[in-house]
């Protein structure tokens, strides 16, 4: 039991008390997640079967890391049998095995929010509603919050209060949209994110034998980040725990930041009522951060009226004060942050991965990226347009979805005429109309296009039929081919690869690379199985695996040692030695929307608390006095949150005095004013500019150096092969797409040797030799 030595007394008490209801509500960095991890390890040591433990985490990555940690403590590979993951991924898995009870296919599709919005647009059109007044995102929000409160479409229509709310908003038809939305999802064999929880609740409510089964399976239930659960999640946990009551939740009310998505702080308070025998544990010592950081965070959160009383202290060093910097523009802020990272790396021998830049909104990443690129600092952005949200990736995945579940209507709409095959918009509208008229699925109409009168010409009918036959042929191969073989086959025979291959613009090349990257990912999935396992890893398994991946989960080897850029929301639970918190301006952070009510403002302040407490050694806060917003240059005031931190933990950076050409290269700095800083008594310099900054709005330039994994699918020229390891620096080689070049560096050990090649035409690229098809030339 020497692992228990890595815990303080309070943590140890929470770990060994494995039976009965337990709650740990404690401040950031006090070891809540560590307690959960050790508690599970402890249970396994005591002989609890891992199949009987359900542990719900905030990201799948957190689950993976926890499993690895547990494996290290207990040894062996029992930890892989734990039920551990996000609410969505765990209950999607359970819904698949129980799907037929809800009359869903077990291979149901999971619609992402883009699919949901596209479906809502369709429905608005069908109902003759204007999508300007019925904004799809607003309609989706209403539906989502109804589902999270377990209100079905029919209940929504019957609910007098909701109906009057919608009428007051001038949107009385949302209920009708919800009703059709529900029907269309069902018809398509699809569930959206909220359905995964909503339908689980229905399953547990309407099928006592199912509830009984899982109540007995999950003898122990653990939930991390409990403060951010919504009602639907709360109820699932409550039902499943009702028999054994071995339930342990950990969280921090000061870090509740998802109320806008229905998270309910009430769940913590309810917990005490639900389990009168509850044991609560207090953790007060922070192990993550320096004294300055802990104290600064405490002083900020004190401004919130609504919070549970708790102390957080640390025995760690004093550390440096929180540095506050001010720049003229957001671009300058990006450069300042990049320069500071560069210096800190040099001075403290820090690695790129030790740094995180956190912002309130994804749009702020642009100026940070530009700064980092200029300094040649590698970085990785989480969120924003994630890999799986890119058009070229969604297109290929839509084919894969369709092959698994031909009823998937959003997938059909996406690819029926992509790549172009002469099935126009009118035809698609007629097929949609016919499906509604006959109350059947799009796929049924498509399959029977020759015998159903949808009003299209014989020539178009043939094209639609060809499409149906193609999809059908792929479907027949699902059980026979590996996911990789089938997906490559789809990418080729549909013409997707060819389309990107023939586009030689930088964007076209990037799209081609992305599709290859996806195929490589599928290949890895197929090969990732225990030794001796000869089973086929098929496409349906792959699609289940990726359906709920978030960006944070989707890290690969190339992403190590990079600066992380993400929103504060995404940074929950994570820690980094150095944190840059940017854009600390009124109306941005706190956001404009939050200024109307105390509770919204308090949520923003909790977000601020989360941000500061991610840091181990140093926090840098910055704000700009002007930035582009919706195409206009606006001037900004420093955020009230800076002022709220006790002054003794802050250190203000004076901007360098410069007169003449400003560092942005545009406009001239002609006056320097003395203005009071947010801290009374201190002064800082603020530049005022005469001319407007004529910068172009966001342009995304692809990173200069990219690690490309290439598996050449086309064209097939046998003289190009993967050159195992018989290759040396200085060799001239030829690559099918990139042309001729010279090997300038080789790194890594076989089979993961990475070659840097200076191509004559396109410059330097790094390729993994196990994937790249090359030939040696004279
Ligand atoms: N007793 C301990 N001894 C050494 N290190 C510890 C101890 N307890 C926690 N830590 C370390 O402190 C850091 C914070 O712990 P952890 O992430 O579990 O905190 P948390 O309460 O879950 O934080 P958050 O509220 O941000 O989710 C981790 O690096 C963890 O390994
Ligand atoms: Mg945690």
From TrEMBL:
One of its GO terms (molecular function) is ATP binding. It catalyses: ATP + H2O = ADP + phosphate + H(+); Couples ATP hydrolysis with the unwinding of duplex DNA by translocating in the 3'-5' direction. It comes from the Bacteria. InterPro entries: DExx_box_DNA_helicase_dom_sf, DNA_helicase_UvrD-like_C, DNA_helicase_UvrD/REP, P-loop_NTPase, UvrD-like_ATP-bd. Residues 5-290 form the UvrD-like helicase ATP-binding domain. It is an enzyme of class 5 (isomerase). It holds the Pfam family PcrA_UvrD_tudor. Residues 291-573 form the UvrD-like helicase C-terminal domain. GO terms for biological process: recombinational repair. Keywords: ATP-binding, DNA-binding, Helicase, Hydrolase, Isomerase, Nucleotide-binding. PROSITE patterns: UVRD_HELICASE_ATP_BIND, UVRD_HELICASE_CTER. Belongs to the helicase family. UvrD subfamily. This is DNA 3'-5' helicase.
């Amino acid at each position: 039991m020497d692992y228990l030595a890595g815990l303080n007394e309070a943590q140890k008490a929470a770990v060994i008390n494995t039976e009965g209801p337990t709650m740990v509500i404690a401040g950031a960095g006090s070891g809540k997640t560590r307690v959960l991890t050790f508690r599970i390890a402890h249970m396994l040591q005591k002989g609890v079967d891992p199949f009987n433990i359900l542990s719900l985490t905030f990201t799948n990555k957190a689950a993976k890391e926890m499993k690895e940690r547990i494996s290290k403590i207990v040894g062996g590979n029992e930890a892989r049998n734990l039920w551990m993951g996000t609410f969505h991924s765990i209950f999607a898995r359970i819904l698949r095995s129980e799907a037929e009870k809800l009359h869903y296919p077990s291979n149901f599709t999971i619609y992402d929010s883009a699919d949901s919005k596209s479906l809502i647009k369709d429905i608005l059109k069908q109902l003759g509603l204007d999508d300007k007044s019925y904004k799809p995102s607003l309609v989706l929000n209403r539906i989502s919050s109804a589902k999270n409160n377990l209100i079905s479409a029919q209940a929504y229509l019957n609910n007098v209060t909701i109906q009057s709310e919608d009428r007051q908003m001038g949107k009385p038809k949302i209920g009708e949209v919800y009703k059709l939305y529900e029907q269309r999802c069902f018809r398509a064999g699809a569930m959206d994110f909220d359905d995964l929880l909503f339908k689980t609740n229905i399953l547990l409510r309407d099928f006592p034998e199912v509830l009984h089964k899982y109540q007995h399976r999950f003898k122990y239930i653990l939930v991390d980040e409990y403060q951010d659960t919504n009602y639907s999640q709360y109820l699932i946990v409550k039902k499943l725990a009702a028999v054994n009551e071995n339930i342990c939740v950990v969280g921090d009310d000061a870090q509740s930041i998802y109320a806008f998505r229905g998270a309910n702080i009430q769940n913590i308070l309810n917990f005490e009522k639900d389990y009168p025998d509850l044991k609560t544990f207090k953790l007060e010592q922070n192990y993550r951060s320096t004294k300055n950081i802990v104290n600064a965070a405490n002083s900020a959160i004190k401004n919130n009226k609504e919070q549970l009383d708790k102390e957080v202290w640390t025995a760690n060093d004093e550390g440096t004060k929180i540095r506050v910097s001010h720049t003229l523009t957001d671009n300058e802020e990006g450069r300042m942050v990049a320069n500071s990272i560069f210096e800190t790396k040099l001075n403290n021998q820090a690695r790129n991965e030790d740094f995180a830049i956190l912002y309130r909104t994804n749009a702020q990443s642009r100026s940070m990226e530009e700064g980092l690129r200029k300094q040649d600092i590698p970085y990785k952005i989480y969120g924003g347009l994630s890999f799986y949200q890119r058009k070229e990736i969604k297109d290929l995945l839509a084919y894969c979805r369709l092959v698994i579940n031909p009823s998937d209507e959003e997938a059909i709409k996406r690819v029926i005429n992509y790549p172009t095959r002469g099935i126009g918009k009118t035809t698609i509208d007629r097929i949609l109309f016919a499906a509604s008229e006959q109350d059947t699925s799009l796929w049924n109409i498509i399959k029977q296009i020759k015998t159903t009168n949808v009003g299209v010409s014989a020539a178009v009918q043939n094209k639609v039929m060809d499409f149906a036959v193609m999809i059908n042929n792929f479907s027949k191969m699902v059980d026979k081919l590996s996911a990789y073989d089938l997906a490559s086959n789809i990418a080729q025979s549909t013409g997707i690869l060819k389309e990107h291959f023939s586009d030689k613009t930088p964007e076209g090349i990037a799209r081609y690379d992305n599709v290859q990257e996806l195929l490589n990912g599928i290949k890895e999935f197929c090969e990732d199985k225990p030794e001796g396992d000869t089973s086929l890893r098929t496409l349906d398994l792959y699609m289940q695996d990726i359906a709920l991946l978030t960006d944070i989960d989707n890290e690969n080897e190339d992403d190590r040692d990079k600066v992380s850029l993400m929103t504060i929301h995404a940074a929950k639970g994570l820690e980094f030695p150095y944190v840059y918190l940017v854009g600390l301006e009124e109306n941005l952070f706190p956001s404009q929307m939050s200024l109307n009510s105390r509770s919204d403002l308090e949520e923003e302040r909790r977000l601020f608390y989360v941000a500061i407490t991610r840091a181990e050694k140093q926090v840098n806060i910055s704000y700009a006095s002007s930035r582009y917003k919706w195409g206009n240059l606006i001037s900004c005031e420093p955020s009230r949150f800076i002022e709220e931190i006790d002054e003794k933990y802050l250190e203000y950076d004076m901007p360098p005095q410069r007169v003449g050409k400003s560092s942005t290269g545009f406009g001239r700095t002609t006056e320097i004013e003395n203005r009071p800083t947010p801290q009374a008594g201190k002064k800082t310099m603020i530049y005022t500019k005469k001319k407007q900054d004529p910068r172009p709005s966001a342009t995304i330039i692809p990173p200069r150096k990219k690690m490309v994994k290439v598996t050449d699918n086309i064209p097939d020229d046998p003289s190009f092969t993967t050159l195992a390891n018989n290759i040396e620096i200085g060799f001239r080689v030829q690559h099918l797409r990139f042309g001729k070049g010279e090997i300038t560096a080789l790194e890594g050990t076989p089979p993961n040797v990475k070659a840097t090649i200076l191509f004559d035409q396109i410059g330097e690229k790094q390729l993994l030799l196990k994937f790249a098809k090359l030939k040696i030339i004279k």
